[in-house]
Every structure is written in structure tokens, then in C-alpha cells.
Design a protein that fits this description.
With 781 residues, the protein is of the alpha/beta class. 49% of the residues lie in helices and 8% in strands. The chain has an 8-stranded mixed β-sheet, with helices on both faces.
Length: 781
């Protein structure tokens, strides 16, 4: 007992050490970003990369060729960022909204009252109302005017720029309704200038070209009059209708030449957010950033982009097309996935009820083996649907005119290929082979994508959209749930094939590798998911040898999760504020009294996800099927857990990690729903198999008892076997054919809790049944 507790302690320390190591190491961030004496931010609401070409926008084309470029996500506090909300978010450095008015089909023009009492500056009488609105009715803590408050002097040209340049009480330092003929003196009067170059809106190509050309002509005048040693940023900082898109962002200045743009808020080259522009201006000007008000991070030049500008801009425009197609396709994909999984959950119930052969002479007609085989294939196909959809993004399905059909065809081919690979795998008839094969295949697909940069998850149907502004790199919500389920099922399947003393080590090794993939900022970049996965791995390691979650095991499991959390928090708080992760920012918010808004946002996000996500239905249906069917005496899951205790350990770990990871990340039950999409079909398949062979008999491993012949007439005792079932044909278990010897544990099957020392609970054939130590002896004369 002392040695076993020492093993638990050692494994716990190993999980903690690897988890903290994976979380605290972060990619190197340039210590010195390019600096300048002046910053000019020129905004063109609605401008997209498809509007930029050498003929229509020659000035912007040349500027993109010499500067850094990227895709701009224009998220604000409104679902749709109209121009007034985009300009206000720019000035706040945080997600802001002008008011609560519903967004119409077409965004209105920036219609804000701008007064000019002295002819030099301006005054916005509605600015204070906007500040109150964002402070009282929004959860982000945005303060419009924070950017202007961080510098001594600000210039605004145009109504939209006045919204961004106004201080919280409404004052604009320098203001011009339109760009002067010679704006050199105006742009040099303050270190920060904001210029409204107009709006590019509508779906008419000719109208868009004309608007883009007009904005380009204004930009040419700005570049001609820019002060020396200045940074000019051009941004399409808003949408113009309810169709969210990615927009143009270009940074032209010393140190930005020929690079992709990135920021710590996205962590991916070529992608930045609207809230990153305000901290960029202050960082370049070497001004103090108001940490409690700004939510973004300063832009930075990333690796070099393709030398061919047409290719680089084409790639950005293609990313916008993929993100636009992803949203529509994802809706029907998950709706169809939920419908299929619910249908399978209902369809498997009669098969579970009739799978176990009764011992009496009268029994219902058994289910046809062909029906069972078809159900197994359907369960495998349902379990590999999400990995197949993720892998479908290898092909550019979004580029065609029928993107949804192309995606459906590609995904269906991949589902059929994966299902066939599992079905015709050698050893398929063994009980756990389909489960292990699906888990290993899913772990390989999702893990390989995360390790190679999560390119399939960005704008992928089962990944995350750059338009949402929540995540741009690493593992997403759906990917996290699927990876948790697949990795823990793989560890349980592999550990079951090992001798009992080695099982915790196998679970911990596979779990540690997954924690590194999920938590490392180089890979999954999900600290909360890594912490939740650490708790799940600890639970699985504690239960994989059988038995219950005792006080000692629960203590070591809790200690591992807390140690990783505390260790990461301590290290994260030692970083510079701009490099802290979500956990460090939350603890800092608690310390300075602003943690309430963070908790409110997380709670609101959980409620929104619970109410509006189809993955919530998957999680609820999965729990209902397990609780009211699979865990019932006729459901087979208890018997599965008794024969294979590592499967009980893996599924317990999945439940803990998936539920805690989703709630802590503000994703509701989305992580649990994605995990259930893989776990529940495989658990149903395994339960169906063990029920189908629950009445099989095994022979003892040792020598058979000596047959002394039939008893004498005067001897007392039970009748001979051939007289116990006059009807014949499989009534009494004592007269049934003896199945091939299986090596299952007697105590584990009798008690159904996996606490016994199953001598070879490896991957037994489907015919594995009761243990030789108990019922196997009953089959002998």
C-alpha cells in the first residue's frame, strides 16, 4: 500500500511538472517594435482585399507592396460592427458600441453631431452618453476616448475620425471636416492623427470600385503630406451590413517592410484585430498603455510574406472567402450531426435490450447479426464525422459556387474511408479494437493539425472563425473536446493491454503528451484546456487499476489540478502585462477590482453557448443515453467497466476534463458535446459487444476436474447435465456449448466494478465472457 501511494505521488508530480513546463514557456516576442515620431491611422469602412488592385487602388497597392499587410477582424461590442461602432472601438481600445439600437440590413452612415465652437477643435455632445452606455450596459469595461487620453494632442479628419479621437468628455483637440488641399501642417500638428477616408459598401462591383478609388485618391494626399519618421496604418475598420467579413490592414513605415502583420491577441501571422490598433499607436509613439482599459495588443511584424504581392493579397482574400463560407456550412453540419447521433441513440436501445441471451428455455428472437453489424458501422461513422470534417479543409471546398455541396461530398468520402479502415482492420472482431482504432485515428488527425499550426481549424467548419474574434491560433472548442476524448480513450485502450502495474504510467505518459499539445503556446495555446485536461488525466490514472475513487486518489487528483493552476498563475503573473495569458489577466483583474466584469462575461458566454449551440444537445443526449440506458443492468456499460477497468477510468476522465474545460473557458457544454460525439458512439458499440457475449462460457485455465462418471443411484446430488434441460437447445447455462477460454477476471465480472486483479484484461475477443474462476468451473461435469 505504501509503494502504491508512492507511485500515485510520483505520477502526480510528473503531471504537474510537465503541465507547468508546457504552459509557462511562450514564444519569443520582439523586445523592440518599430518606433516612429508620428502615427496616422486612415480608416476606410468596409474595405476588403478583393477591392484592392493595381488599377483601382494604385496608391494602396504600392503601400501594401512596401509595408506589412494582414487581415483585420472588426469585432466590437455589437454582433455587427457598423462604421460608428468601428470608429468608437478604435478610440476605446476595447470592444465598444455607440448604442443598443438593432443593426439594420444595411449599416447607416456615421451620423454624429460634431460641434466646432472655436474653429480649431470640435466637441461631440453625445460622447458622454456613449461612455455611460459602455460602462453601465456592456461587460467589457470599454471607455471611449481612452486612446485620445493617452496622448497630449490628437488630430481628426472627418466625422468617423472625430468619434475615435474624442476624449471621454467629448473634446477633439484638432478637427477638420474634410482633408485640406495641403494637409501637411495639420498632420504634423499632433503626434496622432485619425483620418476618415470614406466607406466602401454594397454588393455592386462597379459602385465598390468607385468608392475604393475615391478613398485611394485621398490616401495619396495623406502619404504625400505625411511627416518624416511616421507610421501610416490603413484599416477597413467596419462592416457595412450584417455580413461579417475580414478587412484590409496595411502598416507602412520603417521596420514593417514586406512582412505579415500579427499581434499577441491573435498569435497568427497575417491576422490582427481592430482593438489592436490603439495599443499599436501608443507603443510606436512610446506612450504608456492604459492596461485596465485596452484589451488588444500592439501589432508586430511577423515573418516575411510571399514576394509576389498578387499571391499574398490573393491568399488574404481567399481567407475571407473561407471564413464567410464556414459560418453557413457549420450551421447545417452540426445540425445534421446532432440529428444522426440522436437517431443512433434511439435506434440502439432495442438492440441493447435484446443483445444479452437469457438462460431460460423461452427467449425473444435475437437481433440479426447483420443488423448489429450495420449498427456498429453506423456508430463508427458517427464517431469519425468531426475528424473527417476537420480533414476536409485540406481541399479548398469554399472556392466553388456550391461550397456546401463540395464540403459535404469531401467529408462523406473521408467518413467512408475512415469507417472502412476501421471495419477491415485486422482484429476488428476484438471487443475494443473499433474503439481503440477510432480514438487513435482521431488523436492523430487533431493532434497533427495542432502540432503543424492548426491550419485546418482556422476558418474550418469544425474549428473557429476569424470573424468571431475569439481565437485565431491553437486548438478550438470543438478540437479540444474531440482531442480530450480521443486521447483518454487511446490511453485507456493501450493501458488495458498492459500489466496492471504499468497502466497508470501509460495513462500519464499519453496524458502528458496531450497536455503539452493543448497547453503549449507554440501549439494548442489553451491554458484553461490544459488545466482541465490535467484533472482528467489524474482521474484516469487513479482509476485505471480498478476500484473506486477513494479519498487518497481524489486528494492526489485535486492536488495535481491545483498545482498546475497555481504554478501557471504564478509564472503568468511574472510576465509583462501585454504577454499574460487569460489566467494571469483574470487574477490581475481580481486584484484591481475589475474581476466582476470578467466573471460576468464568462457567465454570459456560458449561458449563450448553452442556449444556442447544437453541441449542447449532443452533451445532453449523451448523458441521457449513458444514465438511462448504458448504465442500467441491461445496458452493458457496467459489464464493460468490470471487464475493462481502464475504460471506466478513461470515460470518467473525459467527463471531468470536458465539462470543466468548457465551463471555465465560457464555452458552456460545447467541449463536452464535442467529446460526447466521439465517446458515446464508441461506448455504445463496446457495450453492445459485451452484452452479445455475456452468456458465453469459459473453461478453467488449469487442468479440468477428473470425470468420475455418472453418480450411483443411491448417491445424493443434482441430476446429470443431460437431464437438466429436457427440451434441449440452450435452455440451461449448464448445458450450453463451452466457449473458447477467455482470460477475464472473476472478481471484476462478479462485482462489476473493475476492482479485481484481472490477469489479462487486454483486448479479448468478442467472445470473452464470465471468468474462469467462477462460472467456468460450473461448465465442467
Amino acid at each position: 500500500m505504501t509503494l502504491r501511494r508512492g507511485v500515485y505521488a510520483l505520477l502526480t508530480m510528473l503531471v504537474v511538472a510537465v503541465g507547468i513546463t508546457a504552459l509557462v514557456v511562450r514564444p519569443g516576442v520582439p523586445e523592440q517594435r518599430p518606433e516612429a515620431d508620428y502615427v496616422i491611422v486612415a480608416g476606410v469602412a468596409g474595405l476588403r482585399w478583393e477591392d484592392v488592385d493595381p488599377q483601382t487602388t494604385p496608391t494602396l497597392w504600392r503601400m501594401a507592396g512596401t509595408g506589412g499587410i494582414g487581415s483585420l477582424a472588426v469585432r466590437s461590442a455589437q454582433p455587427t460592427t457598423c462604421p460608428v461602432d468601428g470608429w468608437l472601438t478604435l478610440g476605446a481600445g476595447n470592444y465598444a458600441a455607440w448604442n443598443d439600437a438593432p443593426v439594420p440590413a444595411e449599416c447607416p452612415e456615421v451620423n454624429v453631431v460634431v460641434e466646432q465652437p472655436d474653429g480649431i477643435g470640435a466637441y461631440l455632445p453625445e460622447q458622454q452618453t456613449a461612455v455611460w452606455h459602455n460602462q453601465q450596459t456592456r461587460n467589457w469595461g470599454a471607455v471611449p476616448g481612452s486612446l485620445a487620453e493617452s496622448v497630449r494632442c490628437t488630430v481628426a479628419v472627418g466625422t468617423g475620425a472625430a468619434v475615435a479621437a474624442a476624449r471621454p468628455f467629448g473634446r477633439v483637440d484638432r478637427y477638420a471636416p474634410e482633408l485640406p488641399e495641403n494637409p501637411r501642417e495639420l498632420l504634423a500638428s499632433c503626434v496622432l492623427s485619425l483620418v476618415d477616408l470614406g466607406t466602401v459598401s454594397g454588393d455592386d462591383p462597379q459602385a465598390r470600385r468607385m468608392a475604393a478609388a475615391a478613398a485611394d485618391a485621398q490616401l495619396a494626399r495623406v502619404l504625400a503630406a505625411r511627416p518624416a519618421d511616421s507610421l501610416v496604418v490603413v484599416a477597413g475598420l467596419a462592416d457595412t451590413d450584417q455580413t461579417n467579413r475580414l478587412h484590409v490592414v496595411v502598416a507602412d513605415g520603417p521596420g514593417w517592410e514586406g512582412r505579415w502583420l500579427t499581434s499577441a491577441s491573435t498569435g497568427r501571422p497575417g491576422y490582427v484585430q481592430l482593438v489592436d490598433l490603439a495599443p499599436t499607436a501608443l507603443t510606436v509613439l512610446d506612450r504608456q498603455i492604459p492596461e485596465r482599459r485596452f484589451i488588444g495588443h500592439a501589432l508586430a511584424p511577423a515573418q516575411e510574406r510571399p514576394a509576389d504581392l498578387t499571391e499574398a493579397i490573393g491568399g488574404l482574400a481567399d481567407a475571407d472567402g473561407e471564413a464567410r463560407a464556414q459560418r453557413a456550412v457549420a450551421e447545417w453540419f452540426f445540425a445534421l450531426l446532432v440529428a444522426v447521433q440522436v437517431a443512433l441513440a434511439v435506434g440502439i436501445l432495442p438492440l441493447l435490450r435484446r443483445a444479452r441471451r437469457p438462460a431460460g428455455p423461452v427467449a425473444p428472437v435475437p437481433v440479426s447479426p447483420r443488423v448489429v453489424a450495420v449498427m456498429e458501422v453506423l456508430l463508427i461513422a458517427a464517431a469519425v464525422a468531426i475528424p473527417a470534417a476537420l480533414l476536409a479543409d485540406v481541399l479548398p471546398w469554399w472556392q466553388g459556387s456550391h461550397a456546401g455541396w463540395y464540403f459535404a461530398a469531401t467529408t462523406m468520402v473521408l467518413i467512408l474511408a475512415a469507417t472502412a479502415a476501421v471495419r477491415f482492420l485486422p482484429g476488428y472482431q476484438q471487443t475494443l479494437t473499433p474503439l481503440g482504432a477510432v480514438a487513435a485515428l482521431t488523436t492523430l488527425v487533431v493532434g497533427a493539425d495542432v502540432i503543424t499550426g492548426a491550419r485546418l481549424q482556422l476558418n474550418g467548419v469544425t474549428g473557429y472563425s476569424a470573424l468571431e474574434g475569439g481565437r485565431y491560433s491553437g486548438v478550438g472548442t470543438v478540437g479540444l473536446g474531440v482531442l480530450i476524448a480521443a486521447a483518454l480513450l487511446s490511453s485507456g485502450w493501450l493501458a488495458q493491454r498492459m500489466p496492471r502495474p504499468w497502466r497508470p504510467a501509460v495513462v500519464v505518459l499519453i496524458g502528458m503528451a496531450t497536455v503539452v499539445i493543448v497547453g503549449s503556446p507554440y501549439l494548442g495555446a489553451d491554458a484553461v484546456g490544459a488545466i482541465a485536461l490535467t484533472a482528467g488525466v489524474s482521474i484516469a490514472a487513479a482509476l485505471c487499476t480498478g476500484g473506486w475513487l477513494t479519498v487518497t486518489r481524489a486528494a492526489w487528483t485535486t492536488l495535481a489540478g491545483l498545482a498546475v493552476t497555481v504554478g501557471f498563475a504564478v509564472v503568468d503573473l511574472r510576465r509583462p502585462p501585454q504577454d499574460r495569458g487569460s489566467l494571469g489577466r483574470f487574477i490581475n483583474a481580481l486584484a484591481d477590482g475589475t474581476g466582476g466584469s470578467t466573471l460576468h462575461r464568462s457567465t454570459s458566454a456560458n449561458l449563450t453557448a448553452l442556449a444556442g449551440s447544437p453541441l449542447t444537445i449532443l452533451a445532453v443526449v449523451g448523458v441521457a443515453l449513458v444514465a438511462f440506458a448504458l448504465l442500467q443492468p441491461w445496458g452493458g456499460l457496467r459489464r464493460l467497466f468490470g471487464i475493462y477497468p481502464t475504460m471506466r477510468a478513461a470515460m470518467a476522465g473525459i467527463a471531468v476534463a470536458a465539462v470543466s474545460g468548457g465551463l471555465l473557458a465560457g464555452a458552456g457544454l460545447d467541449v463536452a458535446g464535442a467529446a460526447a460525439a466521439v465517446t458515446v458512439p464508441m461506448a455504445s458499440l463496446a457495450a453492445l459487444r459485451v452484452l452479445g457475449h455475456a452468456a458465453d462460457r469459459t473453461q478453467p485455465d488449469g487442468p479440468r476436474p477428473v470425470d468420475f462418471g455418472p453418480p450411483r443411484p443411491d448417491s445424493a446430488g443434482p441430476p446429470p447435465p443431460e437431464q437438466s434441460d429436457p427440451a434441449g437447445g440452450g435452455g440451461s447455462p449448464r448445458t450450453r456449448p463451452v466457449a473458447p477460454a477467455a482470460r477475464a477476471s472473476g472478481d471484476g465480472l462478479a462485482r462489476g466494478d473493475g476492482a479485481s486483479g484481472d490477469r489479462a484484461c487486454g483486448d479479448e475477443p468478442v467472445g470473452s465472457g464470465p471468468a474462469p474462476g467462477r462460472q467456468g468451473m460450473a461448465a465442467a461435469p
